[in-house]
Automatic annotation (TrEMBL):
A Gene Ontology biological process term: recombinational repair
One CC-aspect GO term: cytosol
Role this protein plays: DNA-dependent ATPase involved in processing of recombination intermediates, plays a role in repairing DNA breaks. Stimulates the branch migration of RecA-mediated strand transfer reactions, allowing the 3' invading strand to extend heteroduplex DNA faster. Binds ssDNA in the presence of ADP but not other nucleotides, has ATPase activity that is stimulated by ssDNA and various branched DNA structures, but inhibited by SSB. Does not have RecA's homology-searching function.
Gene Ontology terms, MF aspect: ATP binding; ATP-dependent DNA damage sensor activity; damaged DNA binding; hydrolase activity; zinc ion binding
Organism, scientific name: Palleronia abyssalis
Protein name, entry field: DNA repair protein RadA
Ranges for region Lon-protease-like: 352-454
Placement of sequence motif RadA KNRFG motif: 253-257
């Protein structure tokens, strides 16, 4: 039987299907499947004999010349997320919602790289050169030695790169790029993949680093950046709540550095400004301890970041109480509520629960469990936590508390910001610094008894 062709491609995840359907089985997205022309397959792989494609010893590699050093962008928060600067000939993807500030960040980075001696070309497929020039002037970058190109045809871009031989090419955005040998519309999975593949292989061969911008899309009419994540060395996502001026650049994959590192920026009238002390920013002005608030001593990547969890617990008029969370995983909230109910006999049925991380940070660390529980308990009992206290620790389903990594870093940062008490799992005590009082508990029930007298 002839092989069934799989021409229906999900624009969100890239999965191929043999027929159209309303929902993609692979990722669950609705209305994202579009018919695309397949790429013509190349000749079948043939053996080239024993000489070609020979392996080499790892020790031989060590004798080859050392790789050129990383180049600094001159923006510390960006360098940190890249793992200590841009690796020559590497490919970086910067994803994010439309309007979040990707073009602003990369134009600032381009100018900064160029001023630091990394020759840089900024290729825009979205804006006219006059628009880019206006933006650059507004950002105070009018005189930066960056080269600009407005182009969407891949062939022309490769020709430009070949002629100019920059150290770095920024492509804004990959969804507007279009390869004339691929028979589907710009922004489709085939086009985005082909363009990303061509650009990254060309760049690697020619010693050019590339930064690709990718819009995260909800409608599914254009392919999301996820379909090219595997082709690049480093994947960064630029995130933030629309209403907040804070933006977080997060490394989710990095072949040349730690993942999970974050860079914090503030969107101002004159572009993105670095925030070198994020803890102070996320905590804002706090004076009186309030019921329902718990300060979490967290770690983002390699650095400690303090932030505040805020909870509101109120009787519900509905049969199904609401569980609403911003900045924290909803499933993990449900788990903590269940542990409080089953292990500490504190029910939340009949109560609406709202949980929010102040400042627009998204917390993913399990070590925040205890801060979430403390905020919920404090809101429910209407009792504030001890003044100047921070909370951290993981909660297991049995109700036992597990120590979090990097306790010392968390305590140091908290002490630096004027906190004097840490509420944490028992095993943390060995590491406590002198200037922090540690209130440690083996399980959630003993914490509840001690702090809330319940
Ligand atoms: P932009 O970089 O165009 O977003 P993206 O490339 O991710 O789509 O940013 C657009 C938003 O940023 C826009 O709503 C205006 C705002 N902005 C500022 O607040 N200050 C500035 O200096 C600039 C250039 C943009
Ligand atoms: Mg843009």
């Amino acid at each position: 039987m002839a092989k069934q062709s799989q021409n229906f491609i999900c624009q969100a995840c890239g999965a191929a299907h043999s027929k159209w359907s309303g929902r993609c089985d692979a990722c669950g997205a609705w209305n994202t499947i579009v018919e695309e022309q397949p790429l013509s397959s190349g000749p079948a792989a043939k053996s080239l004999g024993t000489k070609r494609g020979k392996g080499m010893a790892l020790t031989d590699l060590a004798r080859e010349e050392a790789p050129p050093p990383r180049s600094s962008s001159g923006i510390d928060e960006l360098d940190r997320v890249l793992g200590g600067g841009l690796v020559p000939s590497s490919a970086v993807l910067v994803g994010g919602d439309p309007g979040i500030g990707k073009s602003t960040l990369l134009l600032q980075a381009a100018a900064s790289f160029a001023r630091a001696g990394t020759s840089c070309i900024y290729v825009s497929g979205e804006e006219a050169s006059a628009q880019i020039r206006m933006r650059a002037q507004r950002l105070g970058l009018g005189d930066a030695p960056v080269r600009l190109a407005t182009e969407t045809n891949l062939r022309n871009i490769l020709t430009t790169l070949e002629a100019e031989k920059p150290d770095l090419a920024i492509i804004d955005s990959i969804q507007t790029m279009w390869a004339d040998n691929v028979d589907s519309s710009p922004g489709s999975v085939s086009q985005v993949r082909a363009a990303a593949h061509e650009l990254t292989t060309f760049a690697k061969r020619n010693g050019i680093a590339v930064i690709l911008v990718g819009h995260v899309t909800k409608e599914g009419q254009i392919a999301g950046p996820r379909v090219i994540e595997h082709m690049v060395d480093t994947v960064l996502y630029f995130e933030g709540e629309r209403g907040h001026q804070f933006r977080i650049l997060r490394a989710v994959k990095n072949r040349f550095g730690p993942a999970d590192e974050i860079g914090v920026f503030e969107m101002t009238g004159a572009g993105l400004a670095q925030v070198s002390n994020p803890s102070a920013l996320f905590l804002g002005d706090r004076d009186e301890p309030q019921a329902g608030a718990a300060v979490f001593a967290g770690i983002e990547g390699s650095r400690p970041v303090l932030c505040e969890f805020q909870a509101l617990v109120a009787p519900t008029p509905h049969s199904q109480p609401r569980r609403s969370t911003v900045g924290w995983d909803g499933g993990r909230l449900a788990m903590i509520l269940a542990v409080l109910e089953a292990r500490c006999a504190i029910p939340f049925s009949g109560l609406d629960v709202y949980l929010n991380v102040a400042g627009g940070l998204r917390v993913r660390e399990p070590a925040a469990d205890l801060a979430v529980a403390a905020a919920l308990l404090s809101a429910r009992e209407d009792v504030a936590l001890p003044p100047h206290s921070v909370v951290f620790g993981e909660i297991s389903l049995s109700g036992a508390l597990r120590p979090a990594g990097q306790t010392e870093n968390r305590l140091k940062e908290a002490a630096k910001l004027g906190f004097s008490t840490a509420i944490a799992p028992s095993q943390s005590k060995a590491l406590a610094g002198e200037d922090m009082a540690l209130r440690h508990y083996p399980d959630l029930a003993s914490l509840v008894g001690d702090i809330f007298g319940a």
